[in-house]
């Protein structure tokens, strides 16, 4: 099953190319492949839930340092999210790419499949070397998606995207990996970490900082510029970046290194992560404040993501069980909430040709399902019932108190209020704002009758699925909570 988790998306990519002349068959192949991958991950989940740790060595390019896969609870959580949301994002993409008349659609689906294969490699990495390899492959396979439009602006954004991610990973993350090997003689992930009893003093906080900043996909300030720059990409790519693969791979890697390389007990005893708690807290607040200044809807959502990702980093740096549980659950809760918001932004772009928040007045009365879904996604990002985000933020708050960091509880509360202000403006403006004069749509689409058919059939189904998912995760968070309690040993 672990081998198939990589092979199936790659096989799907081959099918996408072979069926490129038949869009319906090409997109059906993408959907079937996504469904098959999710079924495979469910099998792996069943094995891990039963106490197993399936593993597979793919190659050994360096003696004693293999490219190896191993399924453990945290990796299964990430794989479940990525594989399920690949299905939903493919559904959405069918409506969006056709409705927006995007060019090079085969290339889009091809690299999307490669990106998911890379994400599976990150999820099931059995050691730091394997994690680094698939992390880099993920950067390279998503680059063509970021530059999809082919404009000068897209190419410039692609250079920033690849420049920041490759520079941080090679200059900082790779250095940290080599340093770890020099200290411990191993790169394997182990319960309780591998550094305890082998590293001490100033080495520990410096090494931890190299990992946190070297994993640039986590977008901790000041290494966050790639994320808003990448918003020139089509909205399904933005959804991929923010919810399915890229940024989640970043914060997942931070959490995995914290738990299985350092060990939370070792970090708590050394006090090595306290300074990074406040770096994450600063990113949370500054990202929210910048989001306030953005009128462009996707830019506002991008800086919201910069802020929200550091919730996971904060959970890892708290170095206690509640923080790690909250951080892991926030990977799932933020994924469903933020992908819903991006799906809605894309639907607004295709159906109403609106990209600025100031242009959305009254649009909710013509697109009620889209704006209702945006409202639900907003509740989840803010952390309010009845959405899943309430659980992850609750655990993060408890973890902050357990760590004796009352100031961080204040940061979490302030950030939630800021998120409420800059996100809730969109559905409020849509439902209660004044519509622009003569606002009856463009290109023959009458807003009074909803979305054009392509959006209605596929993208709206995806929007409703993820919005409902936000509520389901509040009612039944147990699958993800159980995986995280397995990680922490509670």
Question: What labels would you give this structure?
Answer:
490 residues; mainly alpha; two-stranded antiparallel sheet; 19 helices; 2 strands; globular
Provide a concise account of the structure shown.
It is built from 19 helices and two strands. The chain is mainly α and 490 residues long.
Structure description:
With 490 residues, the chain is mainly alpha-helical. The chain has one domain. 72% of the residues lie in helices and 3% in strands. The protein has a two-stranded antiparallel sheet with strand order 1-2. Helix 13 runs antiparallel to helix 17. The protein starts with a helix and ends with a helix.
Task: Present the secondary structure layout.
Blueprint: H1 2-18, H2 23-49, E1 55-62, E2 65-70, H3 73-99, H4 105-123, H5 128-146, H6 152-184, H7 203-214, H8 226-229, H9 235-244, H10 246-262, H11 264-270, H12 274-292, H13 297-317, H14 321-352, H15 368-382, H16 389-402, H17 406-432, H18 453-475, H19 478-488
Antiparallel strand pairs: 1-2
Overall mean pLDDT stands at 90
Q: Give the fraction of residues assigned to helices.
A: over 70%
What is the percentage of strand-forming residues? Answer: under 5%
How many domains comprise the coordinates? 1
Series of secondary-structure elements, N-terminal to C-terminal: HHEEHHHHHHHHHHHHHHHHH
Helix/strand class: mainly alpha
Specify the biggest β-sheet. 2 strands, antiparallel
Number of strands: 2
Poorly predicted regions are 441-452
Biggest sheet, spatial arrangement of strands:
1-2
Number of helices: 19
Taking the alpha carbons of the first and last residues, their distance comes to 28 Å
Cα shape: globular
Rg measurement, Å: 21 Å
């Amino acid at each position: 099953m672990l081998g198939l988790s990589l092979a199936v998306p790659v096989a799907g990519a081959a099918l996408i190319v072979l069926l490129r002349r038949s869009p319906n068959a090409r997109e059906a192949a993408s959907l079937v492949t996504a469904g098959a991958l999710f079924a495979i991950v469910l099998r792996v989940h069943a094995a891990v839930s039963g106490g197993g740790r399936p593993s597979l060595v793919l190659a050994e390019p360096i003696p004693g340092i293999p490219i190896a896969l191993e399924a453990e609870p945290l990796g299964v959580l990430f794989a479940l999210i990525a594989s399920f949301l690949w299905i939903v994002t493919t559904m959405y993409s069918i409506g969006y790419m056709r409705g927006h008349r995007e060019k090079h659609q085969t290339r889009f689906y091809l690299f999307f499949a490669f990106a998911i294969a890379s994400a599976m490699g990150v999820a099931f990495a059995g050691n730091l070397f394997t994690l680094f390899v698939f992390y880099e492959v993920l950067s390279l396979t998503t680059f063509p998606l970021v530059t999809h439009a082919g404009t000068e602006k897209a190419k410039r954004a692609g250079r920033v995207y690849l420049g920041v991610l490759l520079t941080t990973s090679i200059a900082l993350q790779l250095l940290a990996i080599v340093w770890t090997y020099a200290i411990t003689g191993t790169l394997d992930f182990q319960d309780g970490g591998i550094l305890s009893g082998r590293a001490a003093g100033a080495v520990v906080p410096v090494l931890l900082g190299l990992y946190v900043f070297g994993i640039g996909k986590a977008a901790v300030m000041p290494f966050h510029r790639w994320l808003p720059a990448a918003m020139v990409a089509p909205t399904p790519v933005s959804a991929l970046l923010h919810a399915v693969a890229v940024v989640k791979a970043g914060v997942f890697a931070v959490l995995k290194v914290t738990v299985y390389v350092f060990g939370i007990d070792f970090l708590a005893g050394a006090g090595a992560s306290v300074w990074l708690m406040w770096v994450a807290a600063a990113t949370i607040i500054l990202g929210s404040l910048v989001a306030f200044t953005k009128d462009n809807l996707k830019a506002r959502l991008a800086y919201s993501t910069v802020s929200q990702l550091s919730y996971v980093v904060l959970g890892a740096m708290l170095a206690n069980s509640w923080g790690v549980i909250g951080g892991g659950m926030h990977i799932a809760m933020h994924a469903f909430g933020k992908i819903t918001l991006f799906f809605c932004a894309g639907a607004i772009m295709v159906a109403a040709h609106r990209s600025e928040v100031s242009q959305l007045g009254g649009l909710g009365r013509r697109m009620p399902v889209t704006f209702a879904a945006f409202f639900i996604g907003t509740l989840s990002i803010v952390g309010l019932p009845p959405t899943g985000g309430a659980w992850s933020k609750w655990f993060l708050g408890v973890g902050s108190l357990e760590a004796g960091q009352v100031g961080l509880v204040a940061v979490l509360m302030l950030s939630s209020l800021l998120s409420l202000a800059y996100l809730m403006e969109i559905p409020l403006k849509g439902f209660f704002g004044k519509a622009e004069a003569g606002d009856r749509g463009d290109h023959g689409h009458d807003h009074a009758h909803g979305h054009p058919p392509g959006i209605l059939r596929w993208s709206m189904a995806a929007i409703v699925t993820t919005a409902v998912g936000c509520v389901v995760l509040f009612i039944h968070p147990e699958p993800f909570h159980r995986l995280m309690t397995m990680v922490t040993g509670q």
